[in-house]
Specification:
Structural class: alpha/beta
Number of domains: 2
Oligomer: single chain
CATH architecture of the largest domain: 3-Layer(aba) Sandwich
Helix content: 10-25%
Radius of gyration: 18 Å
Shape: globular
Distance between the termini: 23 Å
Strand order of the largest sheet: 4-3-6-1-2-5
CATH class of the largest domain: Alpha Beta
């Protein structure tokens, strides 16, 4: 386990805040876009607890990493972060680690990213890295489902990346609100429509709530997609 301290809090939306952590003993935190960290709150105390979070920042050579976390009433970690923790509060962490990362097919195969809520974290990390390093890729479509427009995390940043990279497209969808210019409904109907019109199978990444991912896997299984070869998943609840 490594030690980190909370150095910045950015209130992205009412329910979703960005928490920036720094490892004071490291010159650089090395990781691959899409990986996660295990964060331990109240280290050394009897009531210490641990949660896994996808890293939302990209590998930038610094000793910092960013997490975007949803405030879940009654959740131990979210209650601690939103109500108790402050700048310079200490945590322990392990990682970054995990295999929910970009593959070497990036330049030769269409990729589809599907997320709900703070499940956009690994995709923000990936797209930020691709944009900053000018990494070549065939095609990437990012479908992000939320309830309302206010919950569209990293919206301006992703729209800016879209303008710089014509083969990247960002598709927000709203399930509980109708807004001009933003598709309405659940995220599945939108990416499935795109997939059904492709001549090749894309590599599909899911990150978000378990129910969304299970539904997505069922939809794709009916279309001949198989895990690992055609589908990657990261479940956070």
């Amino acid at each position: 386990m490594n030690v980190c301290v909370l150095v910045e809090i950015i209130k992205e939306t009412n329910k979703n805040w960005r928490f920036i952590f720094e490892d004071p003993l490291a010159d650089e935190i090395k990781f691959l876009p899409g990986q996660l960290v295990q964060l331990v709150a109240k280290p050394g105390e009897e009531g210490a607890f641990i949660r896994n979070y996808s890293v939302a920042s990209s590998p930038d050579g610094s000793n910092r990493f960013e997490l975007i976390i949803t405030n879940l009433e009654g959740g131990q970690m979210s209650d601690h972060l939103f109500k108790e923790a402050d700048i310079m509060t200490e945590f322990l962490y392990r990682g970054p680690m995990g295999v929910f990362t970009l593959t070497n097919e990036l330049e030769t195969r269409p990729f589809v990213f599907v997320s709900t809520g703070s499940g956009i974290s690994p995709f923000r990390s990936m797209m930020k890295w691709i944009d900053e390093k000018n990494i070549k890729f065939d095609s990437i479509k990012l479908y992000f489902g939320t309830r309302t427009e206010e919950d569209l995390l990293y919206r301006e940043e992703l729209e800016a990346i879209q303008k710089r990279h014509p083969n990247f497209q960002y598709f927000p969808t709203l399930s509980r609100e109708v807004k001009k210019g933003i598709p309405h409904g659940y995220v599945h109907e939108h990416y499935l429509k795109y997939i059904d019109n492709l001549d090749v199978k894309p590599l599909v990444y899911f990150c978000g709530w378990n129910r969304m991912i299970e539904e997505g896997r069922e939809h794709l299984a009916k279309r001949g997609f198989v895990m690992q070869k055609d589908i990657k998943v990261e479940i956070f609840g």
